[in-house]
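Lab intake sheet, docking and co-folding queue.

SAMPLE TYPE: protein with bound small molecule
LIGAND NAME: adenosine-5'-diphosphate
LIGAND FORMAT: SMILES
REQUESTED OUTPUT: full 3D complex as structure tokens
PRIORITY: normal
SUBMITTED BY: R.K., bench team

The fields below were copied directly from the construct record.
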Amino acid sequence: MISPGKTLGVLGGGQLGRMFAHAAERLGYRVHIYEPSTDSPAAEVSAHAVHAPYTDLAELEAFVRGCAAVTYEFENIPTGPLWQLENAAVYHPKWQVLEIAQNRLREKTWLRKNDFPHVPFAECEVGGDLAAAIRSIGLPCVVKTADFGYDGKGQLKVADEASLAKAVSSFQGHRAVVERWVDFKCELSVIVARTAAGVARSFPVAENIHTRHILDFSILPARVAPEIQDRARALAESIAERIGLVGLLAVELFLTDRGEILVNEMAPRPHNSGHWSLDACVTSQFEQHVRAVAGLPLGDVGMTAPAAVMVNILGDAWKWSGDRCVGEPDWAALLAEPRAHLHLYGKKEPRPGRKMGHFTVTAATPDAALELARRLKAAL
Ligand SMILES: Nc1ncnc2c1ncn2[C@@H]1O[C@H](COP(=O)(O)OP(=O)(O)O)[C@@H](O)[C@H]1O
Ligand SMILES: [Mg+2]
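RESULT FIELD (auto-filled):
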């Protein structure tokens, strides 16, 4: 067990690191952040921050040696340096988990090899025959770059011959994954924490609504049968066990009309669809992450309200005149609602599509919470 008072290191300095730091600091830990950019949401609220590239071995080594354990808030960290510094620190999760999750092809191959339900896919190496890979999956499908995709970046839906030709030209020079298009009933996600002793606990299942590929609303509990929720949680817990997770893992899922649950992707860190837990769960995902990494008993994951909805606040919510930002959202309108909880990440510059903050509302039912959330989002 890593006792309170010790230092926990986080690789990555975004909002997930910021909220991790809040939770860790509340439990008496010191948080050190390693983040290449000098203006980061997490550094602002942490005891110490190092700004250097992830590939700077000397800086990275000095950093990890100063921490009782190291974790991540961002999965696209080069694993080479972590592998080289494997014996310099305790890492939760281990770099091998990052390596699987940061590349779609490795992730999907791992799911297939371990017999977890996933979306049928084909791979296409750089210079490979993408058209043939697309035909092997069939239309409609979606082509995604194997590395470094997020919020729908690096993805193209292919529904006809014209979009097939476009995909072939735009993915030239990229390793790609072709996935069958899933006409899902809804998207779900489960966040699971697991300790080094092998104790795993998953949060209630979130139902997620994306708009233009970016998470817009997370609805708790998901409006699906309890049997589906149980299956989704069991699936996430068995993935965490099989992958040897210590820390936190988010599993994004598609629920099909036939009641199948397919894994879409995984992230070994706190997840946007778990932010509701800060305001409507006994233990937040961030505190659970701290507990898992420090080897403390995991916290209770019961909800403290019958239902909750989390809404992302993007830079789009600012007032724009062309591409010039001319005003901020109407925070007072949101904060006047007693059931709303506002979280802002301290990012100086709003940009369309950039995650600036979120808010969570609680209500008696998921539908009532969603209605309130939509109304408050419009009022912003
Ligand atoms: N095979 C698919 N079928 C249907 N929708 C998909 C598929 N793959 C992705 N999507 C949609 O695009 C969103 C973003 O894709 P995802 O693979 O999760 O990438 P990202 O890394 O950008 O989150 C998903 O949440 C889902 O709404
Ligand atoms: Mg996703």
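REVIEWER NOTE: Residues 252, 265 surround magnesium ion (ligand 2) (CB under 6 Å).
SIGN-OFF: pending second check by T.M.
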